[in-house]
Amino acid sequence: MSCRRPTGLPHVDATTPAVSIFGPVTPGDVPELCRTVRVLLETTGAAAVVCDVAALGPPGLATVDLLARLQLTARRAGGRIRLRAPDPALCALLHLVGLRFELEGQTEQREETLGVQEAVEPGDPSL
């Protein structure tokens, strides 16, 4: 997972619902947030819900558990979640535990293909 900020203007989709999550997160907050994500996906028909995690505070395992459960809930509802403004420490913790999340404004993660220049010699057979 890469937590680098994308260059250029962020992609803003007015039809994507968003949820702001404020910390600290307790286990009692998880069912209500999961219900909110599920309802947003079902009522709007959107493919994703943006979770604004800028106000979560210092990340911990409760935060990782919450995000994993939100993603699972979204997948079961036929969608996914995207993270908005994650702290670099949260990105590092998610990477450490092996979880990957799409970040808002981030393009699909693929390696750039490097330009290959081949020289053709006059005696080379064609393929």
TrEMBL record:
InterPro entries: MlaB-like_STAS, STAS_dom_sf
Record domain MlaB-like STAS: where: 20-99
Region (Disordered): 108-127
Highest taxon of source: Bacteria
Gene3D superfamilies reported in the protein's UniProt record: STAS domain
Protein name: STAS domain-containing protein
